[in-house]
């Protein structure tokens, strides 16, 4: 939280002490302020989600959720990033698969995983979303063809603020909180998260959620 705030402060001071009339740079300074403010807002959103989940775990509003339409609606929302990176997204989910979950929280899980699969992919890469049924549970998998995660970092990837490459994550608008929110929500449903990854080949994130009866 401190570094974007320090940056906004510094830039505003620079503008006030004369740079506002420096036509070569003033727009650039305001642009930087806008970028830092966006980063700050994202951090605060993620921190609020996480502290809400931890402090007073609001009871899950469980209902029957059809998986395929939910995933498709998240893909539609993230479409600008998909287009920009020219990615191919394949949603290989059976139409009749339903889970017992809190729909908004589940949406956040899918959204965070897909957002990462886009951010850390390569241009013209692929994302495959699939699911399998295993006695009373559904295992949802999001696989990408991106930069992958070094084996030494894998055990820590779900920790809050843990990022393999801080500069890269920041540049892509990351906060380091997305996966810890995913883990929290999945575990609140009694499920589990897992990850497998190969450097420069891609990553496979999975989570389990109860099958709807
Ligand atoms: P961030 O906001 O930095 O993306 P996350 O908690 O979502 O935070 O992820 C933590 C870190 O895990 C990321 O900074 C990145 O280093 C790594 N990571 C997450 N998802 C992927 C992925 N699909 N491919 C490669 N690295 C990933």
Mean pLDDT: 93
What's the β-strand tally? 7
Strand content: 15-25%
N- and C-termini, Cα separation? 43 Å
Largest sheet: 5 strands, mixed
User: Helices and strands, in N-to-C order?
Assistant: HHEHHEEHEEHHEE
Please give the count of helices.
7
**Bound ligands:** adenosine-5'-diphosphate
How helix-rich are the residues, as a percent range? 40-55%
Structural class of the secondary structure composition? alpha+beta
Strand adjacency order, main sheet: 2-4-5-7-6
What does this structure look like?
- The protein is of the alpha+beta class.
- It contains seven helices and seven strands, in the order ααβααββαββααββ.
- Strand 6 (193-198) and strand 7 (202-210) form a beta hairpin.
- The longest helix has 30 residues, at 26-55.
- The chain is globular.
- Bound molecules: adenosine-5'-diphosphate (ADP).
- Residues 112, 116-117, 120, 144, 146-149, 157, 162-165, 169, 174-180, 203 line the site of adenosine-5'-diphosphate.
């Amino acid at each position: 939280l401190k570094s974007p705030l320090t940056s906004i402060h510094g830039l505003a001071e620079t503008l006030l002490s004369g740079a506002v009339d420096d036509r070569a740079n003033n727009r650039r300074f305001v642009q930087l302020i806008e970028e830092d403010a966006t980063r700050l807002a994202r951090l605060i959103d993620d921190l609020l989600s996480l502290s809400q989940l931890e402090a007073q775990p609001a009871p899950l509003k469980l209902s029957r959720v059809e998986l395929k339409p939910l995933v498709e609606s998240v893909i539609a929302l993230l479409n600008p990033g998909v287009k920009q990176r020219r990615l191919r997204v394949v949603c290989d989910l059976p139409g009749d698969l339903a889970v017992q979950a809190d729909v908004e929280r589940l949406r956040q899980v899918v959204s965070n995983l897909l957002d990462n699969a886009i951010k850390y992919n390569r241009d013209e890469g692929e994302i495959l979303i699939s699911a399998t049924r295993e006695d009373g549970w559904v295992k949802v998998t999001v696989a990408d063809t991106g930069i992958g995660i070094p084996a030494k970092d894998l055990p820590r990837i779900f920790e809050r603020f843990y990022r393999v490459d801080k500069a890269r994550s920041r540049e892509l608008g990351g906060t380091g909180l997305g996966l810890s929110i995913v883990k929290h929500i999945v575990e609140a449903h009694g499920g589990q998260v897992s990850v497998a990854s190969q450097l420069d080949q891609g990553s496979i994130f999975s989570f389990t959620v109860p099958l709807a009866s």
